[in-house]
Amino acid sequence: MTPAPIVTSGRRRVAVVGVALADCGRLDEVTPYALHAQAARRALADSGLDRSVIDGVASAGLGTLAPAEVAEYLGLRPTWVDSTSVGGSTWEVMAAHAADAIAAGHAEVVLLVYGSTARADVRAGRRTGNLSFGARGPAQFEVPYGHSLIAKYAMAARRHMHEYGTTLEQLATVAVRARAAAALNPEAMFQEPVTVDDVLSGPMIADPFTKLQCCLRSDGGAAVLLAAEPYVRDCRAAPVWVLGTGEHVSHTTMSEWPDFTVSPAAVSGPLAFSRAGVGPREMDLALVYDAFTYMTLVTLEDLGFCGKGEGGAFVVEAELPVNTDGGGLSGQHPGMRGLFLLVEAVRQLRGEAGTRQVHRRGGRLPELAVASGTGGWFCSSGTVVLGR
After folding, report:
1. Could you give the 3-state DSSP secondary structure of residue 381?
2. So what's the pLDDT on residue 149?
3. Closest to 164 (Cα-Cα) out of 303, 51, 314, 266
4. What is the DSSP letter of 327?
5. CA distance linking residue 311 with residue 315, whole number of Å
6. Residue among 282, 276, 303, 270 at smallest CA distance from 3
7. Across the strands, what pairs with 280?
8. Torsion from C-alpha of 68, 339, 62, 378, nearest 10 degrees
9. Sign (positive/negative) of CA torsion 175, 180, 181, 184?
10. Over the stretch 78-99, which tens digit does the pLDDT of each residue have?
11. What's the CA gap between 274 and 88, in Å, rounded?
12. How far is CA 93 from CA 89, 126, 140, 233, 348, in A?
């Protein structure tokens, strides 16, 4: 049974009232600002609200794209802003901050908006495709040894395999299931089915990750509108309530990461579930950041869907719907993909996911979903529990 919608740190109930994606995929002739605007317009239309009610803006991204710049481009004059930037977990953390602000009466309607031409920028030589996150500060002691983002995730995956016997086939299954979900999503970039053999026989990128175990690179954007309860009655669709949130920052340098087999979702997840008054077993679906196959497996463990070390078997055998839009492995990945998790969770809870729609027993719509974003190389995590 879905609990009463609450945000523990505030007084007013908070709902997601509008979601949308901008165009995604291969977009060589568009700017990040244009994608912000497109996503924002579509989310506003989805909500049915007038743009004049937006008094909060949250944005972040590669390059500038500060909320002041984004707000001006969108013709907004917010009295509340957030530019928190913690990588892929940014949007779940921002959603938590926005919900707290709305609950406390510091904002009424907050727009979370993102747009990126990550793929087009690399093709045009505007930025490198090998992300090492700089060579100053603590990172300077790792970058000379080839510690790119991909290499850090690969090291963590190998440690899990060593500790718990996780297999290459289990990791590959994550990619296979992501592609199967993408096949049902008309907005997904790659839809052709793949097999475990296809995944394992592909080019090696960073052992143990072959190409299909790494996220795609796309252009695109997304937007989410959160509002105080009084605005719900004016909205187009039924609200999806913010029930609980959690966030956690773990480390930056690999030497400060206590255990490569434990992600920061092990802290943010229990916090979110506790504040929502529900547990992982009550979730009807899970949306988790999946820049690499290992991320899905270990995040599901740390959210409590299975025990530590059991993620390999869980992704093969469990029936829990995960990343129903195809995720970052096959759907879209324009960098910092956490906002896409919230969009898909809301669409599923509303019953608006088309042929990929998840149902409970008896054909009923799902009631509870969890979205958990991960930033850096398991450096940060934000988890949001949503319910109808």
Report:
1. strand
2. 83
3. 314
4. I
5. 6
6. 276
7. none
8. 130
9. positive
10. 999 999 989 999 999 999 999 9
11. 23
12. 6, 28, 27, 26, 21
AA letter at 9: S
Contacts of 285 (CB under 8 A, 6+ apart): 320, 321, 322, 324, 345, 348, 358, 366, 369, 370
In terms of Cα–Cα distance, which of 113, 106, 90 is closest to 38? 113
Q: Pairing relation of β-strands 220-228 and 204-206?
A: unpaired
Tell whether pTM > 0.85: yes
* Spatial separation of the C-alpha atoms in residues 242 and 13, rounded to whole Å: 8
pLDDT beyond 80 at 38: yes
Beta strands in 163-276 (DSSP E): 204-206, 209-210, 220-228, 240-249
- Which band of pLDDT confidence, cut at 50, 70 and 90, is reported for residue 7? very low
Q: What pLDDT does 128 receive?
A: 53
pLDDT in tens, 194-225: 999 999 999 999 999 999 999 999 999 999 99
Domains of the chain and any CATH numbers: 14-122+216-387 (3.40.47.10)
Residue found under tokens 């992600």: 263
Cβ neighbours, 10 Å, residue 29: 7
